[in-house]
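Support request, priority: normal
Reporter: lab tech (M.K.)
Component: structure prediction queue

Hi team, I submitted a job for PRAM protein from Peucedramus taeniatus yesterday, and the status page still shows it as pending. I've pasted the exact input below so you can check whether something in the sequence is tripping the parser. The sequence length should be 87 residues. Please let me know if I need to resubmit or if it's stuck on your end.
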Amino acid sequence: MTLKACKKEEKMDRGFQKKFKFEGSINVLTQMMVDPAATEKRGGAKNLPLRRGEILDVIQFTNQEQILCRNSQRRYGYVPRAVMLPL
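Reply from support: The job had stalled in the queue. We restarted it manually and it finished. Here are the results:
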């Protein structure tokens, strides 16, 4: 990874921590897949856009309805638990 890419990732991680008031290091707990039968949704202010069959990194299990995830483009957001499948 180049120095420029590394700095860009660090900046995105700091932005995530500020936006979601997340303290501590960002650790991936597990990976889950978006249900292929789910409808695709556009992202919102704090919601992650959903694509069928996409594999997401789980950062935090926030509550019974949502999970805090990161997608392959290193974007962070909440995803409904109802559309997630374990790998």
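The CA atoms of residues 33 and 39 lie 13 Å apart. The longest strand covers residues 55-60. Let us know if anything else looks off. Ticket resolved.
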